[in-house]
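Re: that chain you flagged

S.,

Sorry for the slow reply, it's been a week of failed gels. I finally had a moment to sit down with the sequence you sent. For the record, here it is as I used it:
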Amino acid sequence: MAFLEAEDGKRVYYEHHAGAGRPVVLVHGWSANAHCWDTVLPALLGAGHAVVLVEHRACGRSAKDVTDTSIAHRLGDRLGGLVLTGGATPRYTQADGWPYGGTPADVEGVLAGLVADRAATFRAVANAVCVKEVSADIVESVWLAFMETGPKADATLRDLASVDQRDILPMIGAPVLMLHGSDDGFVSFDGAKAAKDVFPNARLVEFGGCGHAPFWEDGDTYRSELLAFLAGL
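Prediction finished late last night. Pasting the structure tokens below so you have them in one place:
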């Protein structure tokens, strides 16, 4: 574990696990932390991959009192492949020509709930992540990860309500693997199917009966698909 010195002396938490194989960067979802990959990391290391985990600004062990919580896309042609797990792309909310997802008003409702009762609102979100039955410990770990986030992370959800990547996806020439639960309550499977057609080279794997976290709900299949994809790059 280590920290990357960011702007104004703030620090971003990361881990670098050495390996001779293709390097993999694991990036968690909104308000989560690197522990969401606890069942994926051992499989990658066992296959010989070098792995980097990073925790977003205002999340996990990274600084909470940051000014900038934006995320830049800078890899360009250095990107060897992309794996999206329940990916909220190209949009999280509905817009002209994109009838999938909720609305900005839905997002504002969640944010208002966080202001009124952060613990209870995050508890409700944690309970909705998985559709298939998982252990109570997993659900509790999701809630605890949410509770580690600072208020600055809330702004990233508001940003997500307006971010539109439909002009970016066609520029990603690298292979894309989309791993998506059929019953995902946060990012609809219909939206994932539409997103697949925006990428030049994408394959969509449906996890039947799963919600937003197929790596927990059907871990064996998730790890198998991930490792096979990486082996083919």
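What I noticed first: The beta strands are 2-5, 11-17, 21-27, 49-54, 82-85, 176-181, 202-207.

Talk soon,
D.
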